[in-house]
Amino acid sequence: MQVWFSSMTKIDTNSVNTGGKSPAPKTQLSLADFLPYRLSVLSNRVSHAIAEQYEKRFQITVAEWRILAVLGEEKGLSASDVAARTAMDKVAVSRAVSKLLGAGRIARKFSKEDKRRSVLTLSATGTDIYNEVVPLALAYEAKLLAPLSQEEQALLNGLLLKLQDIQLHTE
């Protein structure tokens, strides 16, 4: 596989052999080559592209959609659970939850197991929005991945999983 970097240098990743060793540490920062920056920019671009599909139609923000998406997959989460699953700031989650509660898109109940813990669920309106946005999000994902071969998609998924695992163990 060949990869183009910001310097527009073509690299054949199949021929890269580090002998099992890590590359030498960088001594200067170049944002165009700095992985955390590149991942952040890409994530923002993808999120905003998908958001164009639902922001005006449903009057929801990216943060609100993330909460609806998480609750659409897993019912009965606390706001802290949602923050942990989305890696969003607790204050941003709290604001978005308040707005979604006020708009009747989610409901808050007390946990049956622990009456001190409140849990969030999608309301009927929230479920309707979730069911309408999911196909739009999946279509965007398909469009984004279409130029990649099955092998490249599997490699990308494997690398993302590996980076997530590394990140979780370096906190």
How are the secondary structure elements laid out?
Elements lengths: L1 E3 L5 E3 L22 H24 L3 H12 L5 H8 L3 H13 L3 E5 L7 E5 L1 H22 L4 H19 L3
Antiparallel strand pairs: 1-2, 3-4
Defining key terms:
mainly alpha, Arc Repressor Mutant, subunit A, globular, two-stranded antiparallel sheet, 171 residues, disordered N terminus
The chain-level structural class is: mainly alpha
Arrangement of strands in the largest sheet? 1-2
Instruction: Specify the CATH homologous superfamily of one domain.
Output: Winged helix-like DNA-binding domain superfamily/Winged helix DNA-binding domain
CATH topology of one domain: Arc Repressor Mutant, subunit A
Average pLDDT reading: 87
Instruction: Indicate the low-confidence ranges by residue numbers.
Output: 1-13
CATH architecture of one domain: Orthogonal Bundle
Q: Beta-strand percentage? A: 5-15%
| Strand segment tally | 4
Kindly, what is the distance between the CA atoms of the first and last residues, rounded to a whole number of angstroms? Answer: 31 Å
Number of helices: 6
**Overall body shape:** globular
What share of the residues lie within helices? 55-70%
Rg of Cα set:
20 Å
